[in-house]
Amino acid sequence: PPPPPPPPAALGPPAAGSSHWGSLLRPGGGGGAEAAGGDDYERRYSGAFPPQLRARLRDAARGMFLGPGPGAAGPDARLCFSSSNLNINDVLGNYSLTLIDALDTLAVMGNSSEFQKAVKLVIDTVSFDKDSTVQVFEATIRVLGSLLSAHIIITDSKQPFGDMTIKDYDNELLHMAHDLAVRLLPAFENTKTGIPYPRVNLKKGVPPDSHNETCTAGAGSLLVEFGILSRLLGDSTFEWVARRAVKALWSLRSNNTGLLGNVVNIQTGHWVGKQSGLGAGSDSFYEYLLKSYILFGEKEDLEMFNDAYRNIQNHLRRGREACNEGEGDPPLYVNVNMFTGQLMNTWIDSLQAFFPGLQVLIGDVEDAICLHAFYYAIWKRYGALPERYNWQLQAPDVPFYPLRPELVESTYLLYQATKNPFYLHVGMDILQSLEKYTKAKCGYATLHHVVEKTKEDRMESFFLSETCKYLYLLFDEENPLHKSGNKYMFTTEGHIVSVDERFRNSLWQDILPGEEDSTEKVKPNELKAGNFSSNCNRVPDERRYLLPLKSNYMRQIDRMVGLI
């Protein structure tokens, strides 16, 4: 890519400019940020965040989701992106994918009429009986997960988001999810390791010219959706094959480092890609070890996660030991060789920005604060996150930005954990950048180049299922998801599922080949990750309205990415 433009002043307006909503933060505009003492960072980010500004930003996030212009009716109206510009991530080859993926976002935003209309449209028009080859991973997280989430919302007796019930609903979405999962099952057949093929034809099974290589995340991040389906149906098949794949991958980790690679041969178990990192090819594998445990309470899932997290800290983490004290570089997670732990390259990718959110779930909030700050600094420089960023060259290696949600997700979860208004400022910066640089005629477009700000004729469905949802929830403090007393978990595609007893009770006692039945159940109130108790309260109350990261460390990170 061409060299980046001269870096802007470190603490001038955010990348998208602060004039849109920022006036509410200035003296007389209802905010207290400027009244804070201290340096420029404290003046910009500290202090109360005015309720009226939060409300406007919440409404702006809703507007991003529902679409521009009069009469926009949500995700089913997004038809003016070119239908010829479809890539391998498209599961259905038409707008149905976007419509399905966005169902629970409508519910979270309390839009019952559009939710009910969209559900009926899915039931009436979507069929999986088609000669279409799909990615097993994408079909599972985008379509299967959304169908299950919407089914759970419809059948919830409490109806916390308003009346989302469907008249004469007869579990159609659950039946559709079952039908899709059955069509994905051939991917798990005829593999010597139990690790599934990456693609399957919905009518014909595994294509005869299929590759025998798949990525760790793609093969090992199916357990949440398949497990929910099994437990709703009382049929162990789906959870069994997904869990077998996870255990097969886990058994292939390095004896030396305990790390996994990113690409494996499903027949031989040989690692084709030996890179171990937290981004593309690996990310959601770790996420689902923890989330499977949270949902199903199987102790072995937590044990695998704790081992994986320990090995990540030992071999991938660089920089000073503590986030907010001491000397040295800020913490950063790099890509290493799975067998030796040696550095393989000097780039990180935007998918890794999910990891601070995962650290919040296990209570490692301080470390999450530092890693999040690094990705936010990159966002401030470009007004987006390049797909790959070279931290040594301080420049993008792969310069496009497909409206990914990971930084927003971590921002939202860090705000929920700390209630620090800093993260509301971050969310405002992100929202402004999206409005300024990605807005298109009938939606929001992928940035082809984060420096040049050129656009592509494409809007991924995860923009609606995740990016808009997390932005909306960040600014909607009173959302029923926060207030209802229900406990929810987000899937890796941002779909909400309730954490309740029915998913902790399997109706079977299947044992995987060569195993003893040593599975232990954990009660919901006993959920504790390995380092949860020691880290969860490390952010003291008195820091709630101070910067989550000391300004000298924030300045250090800005310098590292070329902002100053």
TrEMBL record:
<keyword id="KW-1133">Transmembrane helix</keyword>
<feature type="active site">
    <location>
        <position position="283"/>
    </location>
</feature>
<dbReference type="GO" id="GO:0005975">
    <property type="term" value="P:carbohydrate metabolic process"/>
</dbReference>
<feature type="active site" description="Proton donor">
    <location>
        <position position="138"/>
    </location>
</feature>
<keyword id="KW-0812">Transmembrane</keyword>
<feature type="compositionally biased region" description="Pro residues">
    <location>
        <begin position="1"/>
        <end position="11"/>
    </location>
</feature>
<comment type="similarity">
    <text>Belongs to the glycosyl hydrolase 47 family.</text>
</comment>
<keyword id="KW-0256">Endoplasmic reticulum</keyword>
<dbReference type="GO" id="GO:0005789">
    <property type="term" value="C:endoplasmic reticulum membrane"/>
</dbReference>
<dbReference type="GO" id="GO:0004571">
    <property type="term" value="F:mannosyl-oligosaccharide 1,2-alpha-mannosidase activity"/>
</dbReference>
<protein>
    <recommendedName>
        <fullName>alpha-1,2-Mannosidase</fullName>
        <ecNumber>3.2.1.-</ecNumber>
    </recommendedName>
</protein>
<feature type="active site" description="Proton donor">
    <location>
        <position position="387"/>
    </location>
</feature>
<dbReference type="InterPro" id="IPR044674">
    <property type="entry name" value="EDEM1/2/3"/>
</dbReference>
<keyword id="KW-0378">Hydrolase</keyword>
<dbReference type="InterPro" id="IPR036026">
    <property type="entry name" value="Seven-hairpin_glycosidases"/>
</dbReference>
<comment type="function">
    <text>Extracts misfolded glycoproteins, but not glycoproteins undergoing productive folding, from the calnexin cycle. It is directly involved in endoplasmic reticulum-associated degradation (ERAD) and targets misfolded glycoproteins for degradation in an N-glycan-independent manner, probably by forming a complex with SEL1L. It has low mannosidase activity, catalyzing mannose trimming from Man8GlcNAc2 to Man7GlcNAc2.</text>
</comment>
<keyword id="KW-0325">Glycoprotein</keyword>
<keyword id="KW-0834">Unfolded protein response</keyword>
<dbReference type="InterPro" id="IPR012341">
    <property type="entry name" value="6hp_glycosidase-like_sf"/>
</dbReference>
<dbReference type="GO" id="GO:1904380">
    <property type="term" value="P:endoplasmic reticulum mannose trimming"/>
</dbReference>
<dbReference type="Pfam" id="PF01532">
    <property type="entry name" value="Glyco_hydro_47"/>
</dbReference>
<dbReference type="InterPro" id="IPR001382">
    <property type="entry name" value="Glyco_hydro_47"/>
</dbReference>
<dbReference type="GO" id="GO:0006986">
    <property type="term" value="P:response to unfolded protein"/>
</dbReference>
<keyword id="KW-0106">Calcium</keyword>
<dbReference type="GO" id="GO:1904154">
    <property type="term" value="P:positive regulation of retrograde protein transport, ER to cytosol"/>
</dbReference>
<keyword id="KW-0479">Metal-binding</keyword>
<feature type="active site">
    <location>
        <position position="406"/>
    </location>
</feature>
<dbReference type="GO" id="GO:0044322">
    <property type="term" value="C:endoplasmic reticulum quality control compartment"/>
</dbReference>
<keyword id="KW-0735">Signal-anchor</keyword>
<keyword id="KW-0326">Glycosidase</keyword>
<feature type="binding site">
    <location>
        <position position="492"/>
    </location>
    <ligand>
        <name>Ca(2+)</name>
    </ligand>
</feature>
<feature type="region of interest" description="Disordered">
    <location>
        <begin position="1"/>
        <end position="38"/>
    </location>
</feature>
<dbReference type="GO" id="GO:0005509">
    <property type="term" value="F:calcium ion binding"/>
</dbReference>
<keyword id="KW-0472">Membrane</keyword>
